[in-house]
Amino acid sequence: MSAAQRISDVENLVNPMRNALCSQKYKPIDYKRLCELTATEKMASTKIQLKIKKMEQISKINKEQMLLKQHRRVWWREYKRLSESREKAEAEIQALLDEGIHKYDFFLDIWDLEHELSQERDAYQTDTVAPVWQLRENLKFWLSEMQHYLTEDSSLKNKFGLAEKLQQIESVKKQRKTILEFLNLESLALERELRDYKIEAIVHDFGEKNGLFHEVPSDLLSLKFPYPDLRSFVINEYRKLANEYWSQLQEIDQQLNVIYRNTDWKEEDRWVFQTVTSQYPSDLQQRRTLYLDMLQRCLPHKSRHELVTYEKAWEHYNFFKSQRRVLILNWTQARKAFFLKAVMAVAEASAAREAEAESASNRQKQQEICAELKAKVLQWRAQQEEAAELEAAVAARRKEKEDEKERLQKEQEMIRRAQEKEKVKKYLAEKQLKWQEQEEKELQHLEELRKLMAKQAIKDRERVEFRQALLEKRILEKKEEALREACAAEEKEKCLEALRQKVSIVAKPDPARVVADTAASKARMGVGSTEEFVLQKPLFQLQTYSEEQVIACPCTACFIVCSHTVRAIGGNGCVAETVTLMAEHRTQCM
Fold this sequence. Notes:
This protein is mainly alpha-helical. It is built from 14 helices and no strands. Residues 387-493 form a coiled coil.
């Protein structure tokens, strides 16, 4: 876009503004109406803001009321629980006093102390609480009468003793203040006493813990150890176990002390925090929100951040405290288990010692029994030796008798054997004669067999020679026949070769003829033909035989006869002979 066009556009825009008063497009501005519109809009916006603030206040109030309702519900539950526990504790204390008052004098002192405390409580109520409630009731009655008379006649205002009532209220306040100061002093004194008792209890508890961990229990020491080494071993093992648990307990106590020292809260604030958090059960919905809200109400000088940090520290403290409690429970269980193991070990050692004593007594008895048995064995051995000697004498006599019998039997046996030997000799001689006769017969028969075998061998040799001659004759005949066949085949091959040479085509090599045109192609193309083409005229003059000459030829007649003969025979064996005949006839014709 050029500069001239931009200038013209600006002038077009400026001209209506210059002529605005006379132009029909623009109207004069109504500032009053604009101010009214802005005022109405401001009023509407302020109303909306007020409504929003009111809604916020209402929501805050509702939220506050809801929290207060939840707090009241929790406090009511806590009140019921505390009242029930108080009634239960009072009933238990009363039952304990009723049971022990007839047995111990100490319970009489407790009973007197409880009676004095109840009298002091009743006196305090009659001196302090009852006048306050009486004054409250009188003031309510006086205010109601005053309002009734003032509505009827305003001139009766001076008849009511306002100064006396105010003086009475001031006196009650002063009396209440003095009583509260006295009670505060007593509470401080009681707190000091309780703190001292707490310190003593802590010291006593620490001493008990030291004794619980470091001192060997009397039950363990009262065991009857059969061996002194076993006693020292058990005590050392117990001390090792106690030292391990004691070191763990010291670490947990050190961590608890560190957490306790890191929190710079007062004792009253800590007590308030613990009391408030314990009043809200763990299964309550929005428990943390509720007790943090109550803590902010009860401890307004503490910020939320401080409450949250102390809450985390308190959780850590409770965690280590629960660990400490679990460690002490584990130690008690381990202590009981160790005591049971020690009892079992002592019982086993005692049983082993008793077994050793019994084995020693049994060994002595066994030695006595062995001595008696040895004496009996020696006596039995002497008796056995005497019996053996007698048995040996009897056996010797029996052996002599048996030897005599054996000698007689041997002599009889020798006589019998001599007789049997003579019989055997006679039998062998007879058998030898029989063997010789049998051998002569067998030799004679063998000679006859040899003669027969020699004759049979001569016959077999002649038969073999005859068979050999026949075989040679047949072989010669086969060779002659093969020679004849070979000669016939050779002659046949010669005839066939001669026939092939006769019927073979002999042509001179002519390369120009191969490349040149044929007569048929020239005639078809009309090359070299000057005469007019006649359709019935043959194309070429054939220089060959006529049909009559071919039929009259003897070769043709011979070929026809041979072909008929071959067909009649129906075989291929006469083909060579037929070809030979055809060749002979052809040679004759030529």
